[in-house]
Design goal:
With 175 residues, this protein is an alpha/beta fold. It is built from six helices and five strands.
């Protein structure tokens, strides 16, 4: 009987995950990630892991690839080299990658010492998690990646580990 219960619980978990992924994509495609959510993202008082203020107004007018992540999240850590590679590839094309760490500043600082990346990282904390939900991350899970075009519209979202080709193609479609 216990084995059957575990199978049912696992099936429910898989169904919930699939529903979350599809609802996240649906929210992005139907533009339910509202303009006000994007404005709130840019208006948030972001800080670096060292506590310095980030001028997110400089992010506006660029194709912005925003990745919500945490150092304790294995798929987040696995995709960071891909994001770093793509940032370098698209650096001269008005594309900026930004990592929003949903973690403590000390954990992020320690992580970045061992895993240097070429794009800016901001401390997200609870507000960053809330913003990711407003931007289509209905499950509140990590990693979560969105692409905001130069007009401030979310044109791509992905809950879970990103595909290098998917992100590259979404960026190229926007250029």
């Amino acid at each position: 009987m216990k084995q059957r219960q575990w199978i049912i619980i696992c099936l429910i978990g898989v169904l919930a995950l699939v529903a979350g992924v599809f609802s996240s994509q649906w929210i992005s495609k139907t533009k339910l990630a509202s303009d006000s959510s994007v404005q709130a993202f840019f208006a948030n008082p972001w800080q670096t892991p060292d506590g310095k203020t980030i001028d997110s107004e400089k992010w506006q007018g660029k194709i912005l690839v925003v990745n919500f992540w945490a150092s304790w999240c294995p798929p987040c850590v696995e995709e960071m080299p891909v994001l770093d590679k793509l940032q370098k590839e698209f650096l001269q094309q008005n594309v900026l990658f930004v990592g929003i760490g949903i973690d403590s500043p000390s954990n992020i600082r320690e992580f970045l010492k061992n895993t240097p990346i070429s794009y800016p990282v901001a401390i997200g904390g609870l507000e960053g998690s809330n913003l990711s939900k407003q931007l289509g991350n209905t499950q509140g899970a990590l990693p979560y990646t969105i692409i905001i075009n130069t007009k401030g519209k979310v044109i791509y979202s992905k809950l879970g580990k990103i595909s290098e080709d998917d992100v590259r193609n979404a960026i190229k479609d926007t250029l």
